[in-house]
User: What shape does this take?
Amino acid sequence: MTHKEFVSEMAQRLDLTQSKVSDLLDATVTVLNEKLSENTQISVQNFGVFETRKRAERISVNPQTQERYLVPPSIVATFKPASGIKEQLKTLEEDGK
Amino acid sequence: MENKITLSDLIDLLATRADISNNESDAFLKTFFEIITETLAKDEVVKIKDFGTFKLTPIQARESVDVNTSEKIEIPAHNRLSFSPATALKELVNKPFSHFETILLNEGVTFEGVEEEIAVTEENKDIETLTEQIVESAEIIIPVEEPETTIEETEDASTEIPALELDSYREVFHSDKTLYTKPERRTKIPSVWIPVLGGVAIALASLFFFVQWQTRKRPIIIAEKQPVVEKVPQKIISMEKSEPERKELETVVLSDGKTLRILAEEKFGNREFWIYIYLKNKNKIKNPNVVSVGTELIIPALSEYDINASNPQSIAKAKTLGDNELKKF
Assistant: This one.
């Protein structure tokens, strides 16, 4: 599902215009990104937790050339799904196959 | 990671930001997460612009060992929900570290802190790590695109700092009683400045008498004093420039590939003394791990911090200081 499809789906459910939904979605993303950039943990019940983690620096080796690179530390945004949704999606797969 | 917010906080934030009622915001966000969940349940990818992509990654069934009974068990194939942040979010979150770039290491170069990791990557050369490494080396290409943002960043940082200092300086100026730890040295200047002016006036007057029988030493001192006095009424920026002149401290512009440690080794004969360069330039360095190229650093005098490379105690002291400082980052 692309961003556009997502917007139209939301517009349908909320009975709002697409442009309105698009604006609101932009605002939501801005708020989420802002909070994440402040290292704030965002937990949404029955969905999961968004948070930032620091990844330590590491040395990686290119196996072809044997060149060693020092990869700098970085802060990454992560998402941990809530256990409910995790299980739901797990079993979904089992049913499907 | 001290701060935590929940969905209800998020609802409030969105309501304020988008200027809508809390009810609307509530409905919007709930639908937002609902659609993501439902779409994922259909085994579809959900992509949200500037935020990221949610998708299910199939995990193959694999054998494992029960931790308690040490019996072989099979972990059935399942899906894992993964979220990969969009570039916009990635860059935003990683802003404090965006100065860093992946560096190609020369043979035999090792790093104190990361040594163990070298061992891991170098020794386990089975297929798993190899594939991992391929992914990693693919990642390496990414930083090449980053220099633009890095430049912006450094400019930002350099303009930010003086502005901040100026503010605190003004505050100090208006309420003389407030004492700030950092600009402490500067707060004294306004009160010192009147006697200094008087002193210089006397010195100038006495110059006429002294010049006649004194050797050339006196005029030199006066010549040195004058620029200082002229600069005092000016703003911090010029103050900072005059500071090293007055104390005759060496400044070094950090060139590419140099670190505080390398600099310390060059100037003081031991890399552990980097901490003193950092302390001396604390107002310019946000994080001692991230000193951008082109930063003008003041090299502190040996006497100021008791720097002595031939004294093991002095080195040990610098090391503990440095380690403590690094823990903050």
About this structure: Chain A has a mean pLDDT of 81. Chain A has two domains: 1-38, 42-97. The CA atoms of residues 48 and 81 of chain A lie 4 Å apart.
